[in-house]
Amino acid sequence: xxxxxxxxxxxxxxxxxxxxxxxxxxxxxxxxxxxxxxxxxxxxxxxxxxxxxxxxxxxxxxxxxxxxxxxxxxxxxxxxxxxxxxxxxxxxxxxxxxxxxxxxxxxxxxxxxxxxxxxxxxxxxxxxxxxxxxxxxxxxxxxxxxxxxxxxxxxxxxxxxxxxxxxxxxxxxxxxxxxxxxxxxxxxxxxxxxxxxxxxxxxxxxxxxxxxxxxxxxxxxxxxxxxxxxxxxxxxxxxxxxxxxxxxxxxxxxxxxxxxxxxxxxxxxxxxxxxxxxxxxxxxxxxxxxxxxxxxxxxxxxxxxxxxxxxxxxx
Length: 315
Known about the structure:
The protein is mainly beta. The chain has one helix and 21 strands. The protein starts with 5 loop residues before the first strand and ends in a 5-residue tail after the last strand. Keywords: Cell membrane, Glycoprotein, Leucine-rich repeat, Membrane, Receptor, Repeat, Signal, Transmembrane, Transmembrane helix. It holds the Pfam family LRR_1.
């Protein structure tokens, strides 16, 4: 059922939007024509994707992942000619992938994984640049880059598909159990990642910021070796930063700010050669900031609010 506390109405002629949220109505008009990024991930949204979003012709980033959206991906998505990043992963979307997606010549990131999409994956110059990670967890999809053949070949490819289907179910179950435990106030440290299903090796982003989490950072997170983004900021996490964080060799962004983390910054962080964003501010960290080729690229803003930290780039 739709959320009675939240609704959005688009006006295509006035480039406006009327937002109703908890008995408060706010109207936005001409400014929408300049909107270039929308991130409504993990907001418990349900229903169809509103075609009104496709009237925002300057949109470059659209992220509706980790919700409960259903129905089909609207064909009109091709009207977003400037779209560069499109994430609809972990929803209940069904039906085929629109062929119109192949018309988005600037699209450089696509994630449709873990839905209920079906049919052949459209071909096209831009779509051919994406790997199978963009489509995982959709049991009825077929064709390149997936191993499943649309021609009805029921050989080894079906066995591979069946394995990934099982992994998809395991991933969904794990996400649901974790969400339920967090909502019940259980500490993050007690949510042990004891058995990692193979599909989790494709997980590349975790954002659990501002979720009232408490406890230590579980070292099980460091077994998700393809992780590129980890955001645990604005919680009540304590203890030290696990040195095993260095096992996340693909990590590009790490945000642990505004927690109660203590102890030294692990020297192993200097081994993360792809790390381009680091935020450890407003914790209770102490000791010298490790040196290293990658860590030397960060400014004092990455470390602010830790009174017992010392060394460059702090004054």
